[in-house]
Prior knowledge:
Blueprint: H1 17-33, E1 41-45, E2 52-56, H2 68-89, E3 92-93, E4 99-100
Antiparallel strand pairs: 1-2, 3-4
Amino acid sequence: RSIVRGEPPPPAEPIDPKECELQMLRDAEKLVEGDVLEGVIIMGRKKGTQIFHTNHALNQTTVPANELWAFIGVLHGLAMELTDIANTRSKELLEDGSISDPEELEEPEEMEPA
Length: 114
């Protein structure tokens, strides 16, 4: 199937957020066990209270202090990526007092090929 021919792609399978998070942790564990990944940082939010949990394994043995700047750079990049996601998904109060919700916008019409 092709969108170019005007046919929509098949619907995606729904993703279980909890299973996605657990799989991410299992994959990271395999990378650490295989000596592929070092200097792990974890961040999450407690349901209900919305209090954040952070932890890291950035000790002097695995990541020397002067190499922490690289981790800081990656965190800045992640912050920019999250900012972009928040900007495109967040509701916005418009000048006329109405609220624009990007997640409720209509799908754009597909154009037929010329």
